[in-house]
Design a protein that fits this description.
The structure is a single chain. By secondary structure, the chain is of the alpha/beta class. It is 53% helix and 8% strand. The protein has an 8-stranded parallel barrel with strand order 1-2-3-4-5-6-7-8, surrounded by 7 helices. Helix 15 links the parallel strand 4 and strand 5. Helix 7 crosses helix 9. The termini are far apart.
C-alpha cells in the first residue's frame, strides 16, 4: 500500500538533505546526547543564574502566584485530590497507575480480571479513608477498600457468606466497568473534545477571557500506512476547522495545531531516514501549505530522544522551502530535560536566520522521562539522554529560556510550564516592555488554567497564554492520559505539591539554581548509569547507540577499513 498516493515524490529533496554535510552546530547536538551530568550541568547553572535584585522580583511574583493558586484550590477538584491522596510514592498510587495504564489495553476480560486482582488485593486502602476532603476521593477509597477485600478473598469460608460469594463472582467485571468509567471521567479532565468542532466550541469561553489554543489530534505512533493516512486526514480536517474559526487573526492571535510526526509515518525512525524524508516530508509540506493558507501556526511536537535528529532534518527542509515563504507559523517543540536542548536551540536560531523566517519554538520540560531512562538501561547505553534530577531540568529550562528570549527577532518563544517559579522567572527575564507577539506562555488543558488565570485576568500581568488542547475519544487518549497522570502523580511535581498544604510556600518557590549549584551535576544516587544497573557484581550488557550519527559514522569507517584489508584463507592442518 502506498503511503502517499496523493503526493508527488520527493526524491530530490531526500537526496539534497542526505548530501548536506552536518554543520558545526549539528555536531554539537550529536556530541551532547549523553554527556555526563557533572560536565553539562555546571554551565547551565551559570547560564540560568540571575542577580539578587531580579531573583527577589521573581520570588515575589512566584509567591503571589502560589498563594493565589492555593486559595482557589482549597477545595481541590477530583483529579487534584486523587493525585494528592494516592501519590506515586505510595503502594496504592502505584497500583492505581499500573491499573489505569494497562486496563484499557488488555485484550480480554479474563486477563483484565487477573490484573485487577493483582493490583487491588495488596493495597492498604483503609488507611486512606477520610484522609481527603474531596467526596470524590473518599467515595473512590471506599470502593477500593470493598473491592480490595473482594478480590483478595481466596477462601469461601468465614466471611465468604453467600452474599460475598455472589459479589466475588461478579466483582472483577464490576471493577472493570468502574475503571473504564474512571478513565472516561479522567479523560474529560484532560481532553477538550471528542472532535475538533466540539473542542473549538468548548474553547470559545476561554478565548473570550484571552486564551488561545494549540490543538492536538490524539493518537500515538502510526503502525501501518492506513493509520498514517487516517491521522493525516484528521490533521487536515482540523487545520481547516481551526483556520476557519481563526478568521485571519494570524499565527499569534489565532489558534493553531500541533502535529506528531510519528502519527504520519509508520517507519518514523532513524534507520528509515531516506524513506521518511521521501514520504513524510511531502505530507508535512502539504499540511504546512494548508496552515499557511489559513495563516495559523503549526508546531512539530517533541517525541522520544532517538527521533530528534530526523525531526531536525524535516524542520530544516520545511524552513528552506520556497513555497512556504512569508509564513511565520512553522513551529518546533524542544524538551529542556534533554541534554542536547541548548544546542538544539542554537541550531534552530541559526536556521531561522539562514532561512529568513521567524520560527515558533515551544519550550517544554518533557513528558517521556521514565521511558527514556528505561530505554537507556535496556539498551546498555553509555549514559542517559535526560537529566536524572528534576532540579537539573528546571535549571536547563531557565538557561534555554534565556537563549530564546535573546533571539526574539527570529524566534517567537512559547514557554510551556505549570511551575510558578519557572513562570515568574521567564516573566521577569523577558523584561517589562512586553508587546503582543513578543512571546507567550502555554499550559496543558485541564492542568494549567488555574495558575495562568492570574496572568490572563490581571491587566498588570497580562500575557498571551495558549492552551495545549488534546482532541479525541477516550479510546485514543490512553498514552497521553498516562503521561499526564505520571506528571501529576509524581511527588516532585509542582502540580502534585501545590494541593498539599503540608508543603510550605517557600519550598514551592525555591530557586532551582540555588538548589542545583552545590550538587555540581552529581547524578541522582538511586539512578545508576546503565552499565552499572546490576551493581558491582554484574556489568550490564553494552549496547551500540545506532541512533547517533557519530556512532554510525565510526561503524561505517571501521567497515570500510576492514574491506580494504586483504583477507587470506587457507586450510588449518594438524601439522
Amino acid at each position: 500500500m502506498s503511503l502517499s498516493p496523493s503526493f508527488p515524490s520527493s526524491v530530490a529533496a531526500s537526496a539534497a538533505l542526505t548530501a548536506v554535510p552536518r554543520d558545526a552546530l549539528r555536531r554539537q547536538i550529536d556530541a551532547a546526547w549523553r554527556t555526563p551530568e557533572p560536565e553539562c550541568v555546571p554551565p547551565l547553572v551559570s547560564a540560568a543564574r540571575v542577580d539578587d535584585a531580579l531573583q527577589a522580583r521573581i520570588g515575589e511574583l512566584a509567591r503571589r502566584l502560589v498563594t493565589g493558586l492555593r486559595s482557589k484550590r482549597v477545595r481541590s477538584s477530583g483529579v487534584d485530590a486523587l493525585m494528592k491522596e494516592f501519590s506515586l510514592s505510595s503502594q496504592e498510587g502505584v497500583a492505581l497507575m499500573c491499573l489505569a495504564e494497562a486496563l484499557l489495553r488488555v485484550p480480554d476480560r479474563a486477563t483484565a480480571d487477573r490484573l485487577i486482582r493483582d493490583k487491588l488485593s495488596g493495597g492498604d486502602w483503609r488507611a486512606h479513608i477520610g484522609q481527603s476532603p474531596s467526596l470524590f476521593v473518599n467515595a473512590a477509597t471506599w470502593g477500593l477498600l470493598i473491592t480490595g477485600r473482594l478480590v483478595s478473598t481466596s477462601s469461601e469460608e468465614g466471611l465468604a457468606s453467600a452474599l460475598t460469594r455472589l459479589l466475588a463472582r461478579g466483582g472483577e467485571p464490576l471493577i472493570r466497568k468502574g475503571m473504564d468509567l474512571a478513565m472516561r471521567m479522567l479523560g474529560e479532565q484532560f481532553v477538550t473534545g471528542r472532535t475538533i468542532d466540539e473542542a473549538l466550541d468548548r474553547g470559545r469561553s476561554a478565548e473570550k477571557r484571552g486564551y488561545r489554543y494549540s490543538f492536538d489530534m490524539l493518537g500515538e505512533a502510526a503502525m501501518t500506512a492506513a493509520d498514517a493516512e487516517r491521522y493525516y486526514r484528521s490533521y487536515e480536517e482540523a487545520i481547516r476547522a481551526i483556520g476557519q474559526g481563526s478568521a485571519g487573526r494570524g499565527v499569534v492571535d489565532g489558534n493553531g495545531i500541533s502535529v506528531k510526526l510519528s502519527a504520519l509515518h509508520p517507519r518514523y525512525v532513524w534507520a528509515q531516514r531516506e524513506r521518511v524524508v521521501d514520504e513524510l516530508l511531502p505530507r508535512m509540506k502539504a499540511l504546512c501549505l494548508l496552515a499557511r493558507q489559513y495563516d495559523i501556526g503549526l508546531s512539530i511536537d517533541a517525541e522520544e530522544a532517538d527521533r530528534l535528529d530526523i525531526s531536525l532534518d524535516l524542520l530544516q527542509a520545511l524552513a528552506h522551502d520556497a513555497a512556504l515563504a512569508g509564513w511565520n507559523g512553522l513551529g518546533f517543540v524542544v524538551q529542556a530535560y534533554q541534554k542536547r536542548a541548548p544546542f538544539v536551540l542554537d541550531w534552530i536560531v541559526g536556521l531561522a536566520r539562514a532561512s529568513g523566517r521567524r520560527l515558533m519554538v515551544r519550550l517544554v520540560k518533557g513528558a517521556y522521562w521514565d521511558a527514556e531512562i528505561k530505554r537507556a538501561q535496556m539498551d546498555g547505553m553509555a549514559g542517559y539522554p535526560v537529566y536524572t534530577r528534576k532540579v537539573y531540568t528546571d535549571v536547563s529550562y531557565l538557561a534555554c529560556a534565556r537563549r530564546l528570549l535573546g533571539a526574539r527577532d527570529v524566534i517567537y518563544p512559547q514557554f510551556a510550564s505549570h511551575n510558578a517559579h519557572t513562570l515568574a522567572a521567564v516573566f521577569h527575564m523577558a523584561g517589562d516592555d512586553y508587546l503582543p507577539g513578543d512571546y507567550e506562555f502555554q499550559c496543558l488543558h485541564g492542568m494549567g488554567e488555574p495558575l495562568y488565570d492570574q496572568l490572563v485576568g490581571d491587566p498588570a500581568l497580562r500575557r498571551l497564554v495558549r492552551i495545549y488542547a488534546p482532541v479525541g475519544s477516550h479510546e485514543t487518549l490512553l498514552a497521553y492520559l498516562v503521561r499526564r497522570l505520571l506528571e501529576n502523580g509524581a511527588n516532585s511535581s509542582f502540580v502534585n505539591r501545590i494541593v498539599d498544604e503540608n508543603v510550605p510556600v517557600e519550598a514551592l518557590i525555591a530557586d532551582p539554581v540555588a538548589e542545583a549549584a552545590p550538587l555540581a551535576g552529581a547524578p541522582h544516587p538511586r539512578i545508576p548509569l546503565p552499565g552499572e544497573l546490576y551493581g558491582a557484581g554484574r556489568a550490564n550488557s553494552t549496547g551500540i547507540d545506532l541512533a547517533s550519527e557519530p556512532v554510525r559514522e565510526r561503524i561505517a569507517a571501521a567497515l570500510a577499513a576492514s574491506r580494504s584489508a586483504p583477507a587470506a584463507a587457507g586450510p588449518l592442518l594438524a601439522a
